[in-house]
Amino acid sequence: GFNTQEELSSYGNRIYNIHIKDRVLNGQTVPLGEGDANFPLFFESLSKLNYSGNFILQTARSKNGEHLKDLINYRELIENLIKKYET
pTM to 2 decimals? Predict the structure, then answer.
């Protein structure tokens, strides 16, 4: 429900840790990429700030008990987005 570009342009240069999660607006946490978070727009906007801080993943629990596999997939999703939009 936030305007990513507006938020980051307002105070993005003050961010030193980013907590990443995904959810449906006003709903529960869902697997990364299945909610309303616009990760491509976020990482594209973030790259313009030359962000070099940490990323903390708060992800949904595995639906089928394969927690490690899902965590690896989440990490790869975020790593790929970071690489795609690196300046």
Answer: 0.88
